[in-house]
Write a structure and sequence with these properties.
By secondary structure, the protein is mostly beta strands. The protein has one domain: NE0471 N-terminal domain-like (2-Layer Sandwich). The protein is built from two helices and seven strands. The strands form two sheets. Strands 1-2-3-7 form a four-stranded antiparallel β-sheet. Strands 4-5-6 form a three-stranded antiparallel β-sheet. It is globular.
Length: about 90
């Protein structure tokens, strides 16, 4: 067993509240945030402009930089292990 820690290197948000998530080992997953945006602090992302414009990589994972200050402790981020467990899209790119 390896001690791989998944690190997100790129994200591409889509207008249907999904995000293509690219990992450092070449794996690509598709994260569906439709349920997430209905809960707690994540309801801010229901505005598609905010969802698309603030989607980024912070803390080595998919995140939304809502306040635009690139403050890693104030972004909305998703556990990279959960993202990595999503089914792969088009296999690996590496």
């Amino acid at each position: 067993m390896t001690d791989y820690f998944p690190t997100v290197v790129q994200v591409i948000p889509k207008e249907n509240y999904t995000v293509l998530v690219f990992f450092d080992d070449g794996k690509i997953t598709l994260y569906d945030a439709a349920d997430l945006i209905k809960k707690g602090i994540f309801t801010k992302l229901q505005d598609i402009s905010i969802f698309m414009d603030t989607c980024t990589v912070m803390n080595g994972t998919l995140a939304w930089d809502i306040d635009g200050r690139r403050n890693a402790s104030e972004c909305l981020d998703i556990d990279p292990f959960m993202l990595y467990e999503q089914p792969a899209v088009n296999g690996n790119i590496a």
